[in-house]
Design goal:
Structural class: alpha/beta
Largest sheet: 5 strands, parallel
Shape: globular
Number of strands: 7
Strand order of the largest sheet: 4-5-3-6-7
Helix content: 25-40%
Strand content: 5-15%
Order of helices and strands: HHHHEEEHEHEEHE
């Protein structure tokens, strides 16, 4: 764009060298970090959100014989971002009747009920789009996919967030088939 901000579609059209330079600008150590407004425009871009959700649905760990995406936490940038992610999910995947993904943050009514439902193996939602509420201190052994859709600036918080996937879960994939690993999708180069 004229303002120097790339849309998801424009990013796709870049050469590998240009993509590498763009990705490097997210790295604090490069000294050429993209402004917060540019990052926010990228985070809130519908095409970007759709690509992240499609990536998750295609490549995320599945349960119930590979038929259903396992419990997933998407760490969103803020409440507005979380709301948009859920809206886009419901738009792309209408077959789930608005029950598969839920915004879980301080702006949502009955948030504890949502957390309890997310914590229950056989209840929806399968995807919790969280802003700070599920980053630390919540033990949900069934979580097998973590999506970092925000920049994390605290190392201790970062490791706490990763810890959401490390809980052991016996028989998650069937009798005698315990959880042995989890996936991390990192879209903002936190690693």
């Amino acid at each position: 764009d004229d303002d120097g901000v790339l849309t998801g579609q424009e990013l796709d059209e870049l050469s590998d060298e240009e993509k590498e330079h763009f990705e490097d600008t997210f790295d604090d150590e490069e000294g050429e970090e993209i402004s917060n407004s540019a990052v926010n425009q990228w985070l809130f871009n519908d095409n970007t959100i759709d690509q992240v959700l499609n990536d998750l649905m295609e490549k995320g760990i599945k349960v119930e014989g590979g038929d259903k995406l396992g419990k997933t936490i998407i760490f969103a940038n803020n409440s507005k971002h979380a709301k948009r992610i859920v809206e886009r999910f419901n738009h792309i995947y209408p077959q789930f009747n608005g029950k598969f993904a839920a915004q879980i943050d301080y702006k949502v009514d009955y948030v504890q009920t949502l957390i309890d439902d997310f914590s229950t193996k056989d209840k929806f939602p399968q995807i919790a789009v969280s802003v700070d509420m599920l980053d630390t201190g919540v033990d949900i052994p069934e979580v097998v996919n973590l999506v970092f859709f925000k920049k994390v600036r605290s190392k201790s918080k970062f490791w706490q967030m990763i810890g959401r996937g490390t809980r052991l879960c016996p028989n998650l994939f069937g009798v005698g088939e315990d959880k042995e690993y989890f996936l991390i999708f990192d879209y903002l180069r936190n690693f």
